[in-house]
Design goal:
Elements (H helix, E strand, L loop, with lengths): L1 E7 L15 H17 L5 E4 L3 H16 L6 E4 L8 H15 L4 H5 L5 H17 L9 H19 L4 E6 L1 H12 L3 H8 L7 E6 L4 E8 L1 H4 L11
Parallel strand pairs: 1-4, 2-3, 2-4
Antiparallel strand pairs: 1-5, 5-6
Helix pairs in contact: 1-2, 3-5, 5-8, 6-7, 7-8
Length: about 240
């Protein structure tokens, strides 16, 4: 069997013009994870990432220490199946609809990008509405996003399903979709799981060419060992 390490990217630049870039804290989180892998003897035969800047930046930071020690870096594959869903498109499309249906949401909508509490409230309502399918037709259905992630996983299983360590540096949505695939949970439960996934957390799965099972979820011991609770971030 192979072990697949699904790694969420480091903290991105919430509230900045370019959200996709790692924050200073995100760089530190990824560096700590790379050091943790080095100290615990975890190496990878291959690394997959999505094509987003924060995902690739996290992968490069994880590998940086190996490069400094002169170790050969594993081959890296970019696959947009492991990109995060387009939350901006979901919010842009659905927030006006939610506001029409419930004008009391205006308080939180007005503070969408200045208050993390307001953002989370509106974000959750929008995401759950999205996966329900009850939304304008031009928005990509959640099931299309979910099925693309599952297709990416199936590709890895077929290519590296025996005796390999594979890292997949991705985002919360694809990690939750991977848990869904392993445990057969619902779309709603998968989306709610997404909000619990910590930056640079590691979720491990075992696989063969045709079997996929969960080993561990949302492990951040590399952050907890620092004793700095400020490194535990969700966005």
């Amino acid at each position: 069997m192979s072990t697949l390490y699904f790694i969420r990217h480091g903290q991105a630049s919430f509230g900045k013009e370019n959200y996709d870039r790692l924050s200073e804290r995100g760089i530190m989180q990824a560096s700590l994870l790379g050091r943790h892998f080095m100290l615990t003897g975890v190496t990878f035969d291959v690394i997959y990432t999505g094509t987003l800047e924060r995902q690739i930046g996290t992968a490069n930071e994880i590998l940086r220490l190996s490069g400094e020690k002169g170790l050969n870096a594993p081959r890296m594959y970019l696959n947009d199946a492991f990109n995060e869903y387009d939350s901006r498109a979901v919010l842009t499309t659905l927030v006006p609809l939610l506001l029409t249906e419930d004008p009391s949401l205006k308080y939180d909508v007005d503070r969408l990008f200045s208050s993390r509490t307001s953002f989370q409230k509106i974000f959750e309502l929008s995401m759950l509405r999205w996966i329900s399918g009850n939304h304008p037709g031009e928005l990509l259905p959640y099931r299309s996003f979910r099925d693309a992630v599952h297709g990416g996983i199936n590709e890895i299983m077929k290519r590296f399903g025996r005796g390999k360590n594979v890292a997949i540096v991705t985002s919360g949505g694809p990690i939750a979709a991977a848990v869904m695939m392993a445990l057969h949970i619902s779309d709603d439960d998968s989306m709610r799981l997404t909000w619990q996934i910590i930056n640079t957390s590691v979720s491990r799965f075992k696989c063969t060419e045709d079997r996929f099972s969960l080993m561990s979820f949302n492990d951040v011991c590399h952050l907890e060992l620092t004793g700095d609770r400020g490194l535990i971030t969700y966005r």
